[in-house]
Amino acid sequence: MRILVQKFGGTSLSSPQARTHVIEHIRRELARQYRLVVVVSAMGRRGEPYATDTLLDWSEQNGNGLPLREKDLLLCCGEIISAATLCSLLQHEGITATVLTGAQAGFITDNQFGNARILDVKPDRVRAELENVQVVIVTGFQGQTESGDFTTLGRGGSDTSATALGAALRAEMIDIYTDVNGILTADPRIVEDARPLSHMSYTEICNMAHQGAKVIHPRAVEIAMQSLIPVRVRSTFTDSEGTLVTQPDGFHDVQMGFVDRFVSGVAYVSNITQISVECDRTEGLQLKVFKTMAENSISVDFINVTPTGVLYTVFDSDSEKAISALQGLNLKPRSLSGCAKVSVIGGGINGVPGIMAKIVEALSEHDIPILQSADSNTTIWVLVKKEDMVQALRALHSKFELHR
Ligand code: ADP
Ligand code: ASP
Ligand code: MG
């Protein structure tokens, strides 16, 4: 049985017109003799009736006291409504289909409600249903604990549902349908001349996704990479082939369109606070700073430790908690909220002279101060004020000629 997994995101399902495109993609692949597993997200974006953000707002506006376990139950409704709607449309078109929830599709997770991790996928029921119908629709973003509680996989988790199910079913390919023409050199909402990349390696896209390119969830790419199943990120609204994500093998790379590029793209994470604390190593103070952050479940990034102090970032949403925890240690932290982390990503930047010089040149040409920087063998990060973020991304995109 040739199995293809198709995942449709929120905007791909948001209107009757969008759903017509979805049905066309399903029909085309059925004609190619695939058995289809279609993973769906909740329909639409914030403000639309059954979108995940709308359901979250609803729970906040109505008491905001919902325990995490029950909140997951509420969130699961978005994907269930979406799946039932698509099933009804397919039946109407004469295509046989059935719906399975995450639990029925075999997703077993831990009990970290709101951000559960997949422990196992047992796809026996999906396989059995594929013998009876042309399309098995699976609600993305959800699973169930060993004891039967509904869980959700964290924001953007439908991508992970699709690749995890694709891996468990040994699918031929996983198609991620979204509202852009594949993976681009930057978020097209910010950089207008961002260019679609026809081919990328799992590692390249994984790095971009980890740095904030939300077109695909990083966990989803990691799972696909482990099973080496090709992933295609493509638009629901055009016929473009999008971006094919595979593993370069050094032999077929030229045919496959792998290009030796230094920099593959730029990405960003906003709403970050920079914290600096003057403290030396006496009385284990520096250690106490990081232990206190961990005890308060505050995730820290961009860490810089010097003999006289520590410098790091947290999300704006955690900054108050972080500051009062530090004051509790009798320290006098300084903080700068409203920052953004801008990244230049590329497998080829390791050891190449001049990359940092280009970054500094691009930003100083626009008078953008760099508040902090760091690098790894695939990424260079700079911290800038949030109001400089858009300009910084555009300047870097243009400096590295990513539009070409
Ligand atoms: P879906 O609902 O289909 O999962 P998402 O909103 O999660 O869609 O992801 C698609 C969005 O990701 C695009 O609309 C785009 O604005 C954003 N995005 C950010 N970085 C990139 C990038 N490098 N390439 C393509 N899209 C990107
Ligand atoms: N509907 C969920 C979210 O908005 C999952 C997803 O779209 O991938 O996060
Ligand atoms: Mg998404």
Would you mind describing this structure in some detail?
By secondary structure, the chain is α/β, with parallel strands linked by helices. Helix content is 34%, strand content 25%. It has 12 helices and 18 strands. It has helices at 16-31, 52-61, 68-92, 124-130, 158-168, 202-210, 218-227, 253-256, 285-295, 316-327, 355-365, 389-399, and strands spanning 3-8, 35-40, 97-100, 107-109, 118-121, 135-139, 142-144, 150-152, 173-178, 199-201, 231-235, 243-246, 265-278, 301-306, 309-315, 334-345, 372-375, 379-385. The strands form 4 sheets. It has an 8-stranded mixed beta sheet with strand order 3-6-2-1-9-11-12-10, sandwiched between helices. A hairpin with a 2-residue loop joins strand 14 and strand 15. Helix 2 packs across helix 3 (68-92), helix 5 packs parallel to helix 7 and helix 6 runs antiparallel to helix 7. The protein starts with a strand and ends in a 5-residue tail after the last helix. The relative contact order is 0.10. Adenosine-5'-diphosphate is lined by residues 9-12, 41, 156, 178-180, 183-184, 186-189, 208, 213-215, 265.
